[in-house]
């Protein structure tokens, strides 16, 4: 399972500290930041269990950072919905 969060983390030193804290607090979680992304993305993966979004957000908030789940714009449901009603036009 992979979850992606939008954050307000700005510095690489902050990101390293938070990655260490996440990995200590949550067994099996692997975390990384992409501070070059406009959303200051935090990616968390875990092979053995689901990711508790509320707990991750709470951990970041307890250290003064904001975090929110970043919605996937290309989810399977969106793709299915877009393609289930194709529009065909014919010019004669």
Your description of this structure?
With 92 residues, the chain is an alpha+beta fold. The chain has a single domain, classed as 2-Layer Sandwich (Alpha-Beta Plaits), CATH 3.30.70.100. It is built from three helices and four strands; from the N terminus they run E-H-E-E-H-E-H. The chain is globular.
Please report which band the strand proportion falls in: under 5%, 5-15%, 15-25%, 25-35%, 35-45% or over 45%: 15-25%
Give helix and strand order, one letter per element, not per position: EHEEHEH
Q: Which term fits the overall shape? A: globular
Instruction: Please indicate the count of domains.
Output: 1
Assembly type of the chains comes to single chain
Please count the beta strands (DSSP E, at least 2 residues each). Answer: 4
Distance between the termini: 49 Å
User: Can you summarize the main beta sheet?
Assistant: 4 strands, antiparallel
* Contiguous helical run count: 3
- Second-tier CATH architecture: 2-Layer Sandwich
List keywords for this structure.
92 residues; alpha+beta; Alpha-Beta Plaits; four-stranded antiparallel beta sheet; 3 helices; globular; disordered C terminus
Could you outline the blueprint of secondary structure elements for this entry?
Elements: E1 2-7, H1 12-25, E2 30-34, E3 41-45, H2 53-62, E4 67-69, H3 76-84
Antiparallel strand pairs: 1-3, 1-4, 2-3
